[in-house]
């Protein structure tokens, strides 16, 4: 814990292929512009605006295919260097040395979150020899969308909400209006599952619990409205179902 008694947290985040093209130098957290960095910047804005102090802000370091392990505030130029298994092995000695220095300079980390793909993790292989007994370690996994969701949950301590959405039994999406009670929705869902439920389990994080099955919100909204799943996003489906009074959960 730090001097205030709060848990110390450390985030190690991989760089992103998408970068701002601004000339000169930018802080790394601003240079990288992939979805993970957008979540991180939004969290910092929200924390400042809401004066959130219940979850301490983590120290953030970025594993860069060009620069190795750097502070999120380090000024860097635009570059084009992809992380490969070979590049990770070449960077590994320097990355490990820098990571151990971070642990030495900032003792007492109790939460460590690695948010990166397999090739990036190669550059940190062997770090476990310095893991303390009281350190909780999380590795984000899955697709980029899945890692994005896990990062959000770890930063905020909760899943994203839908501000201002209440269950009224009436919802509209892409011009299609549906008026149903939750009981009617579940009855229609059960019928659709018995007739053709092959695509119902095609979801990454968000789902509706129907009996003993987890159902894709987009699939369910498509069945209720007749719209193709390509016509709306997952957040649209979440909002639509929440307006009908259903609870959309996160795996």
State the gist of this model.
The chain has 251 residues and is of the alpha/beta class.
Written description of the protein model:
There is one protein chain. The protein is 37% helix and 20% strand. The chain has two domains: 8-156, Uracil-DNA glycosylase-like (Rossmann fold), CATH 3.40.50.10630; 170-250, no CATH class. The protein has helices spanning 28-31, 35-50, 85-105, 118-122, 144-156, 182-196, 217-225, 234-243, and strands at residues 8-14, 26-27, 59-64, 68-71, 75-76, 109-115, 136-139, 170-173, 176-179, 206-210, 213-215, 249-250. The strands form four sheets. Strands 4-3-1-6-7 form a five-stranded mixed sheet, sandwiched between helices. It is elongated, with a radius of gyration of 22 Å. With 251 residues, the chain is an alpha/beta fold. α2 (35-50) packs parallel to α5 and α7 (217-225) packs across α8 (234-243).
Key words describing this protein structure:
2 domains, alpha/beta, 251 residues, 8 helices, Rossmann fold
List the helices and strands and how they pair.
Elements: E1 8-14, E2 26-27, H1 28-31, H2 35-50, E3 59-64, E4 68-71, E5 75-76, H3 85-105, E6 109-115, H4 118-122, E7 136-139, H5 144-156, E8 170-173, E9 176-179, H6 182-196, E10 206-210, E11 213-215, H7 217-225, H8 234-243, E12 249-250
Parallel strand pairs: 1-3, 1-6, 6-7
Antiparallel strand pairs: 2-5, 3-4, 8-9, 10-11, 10-12
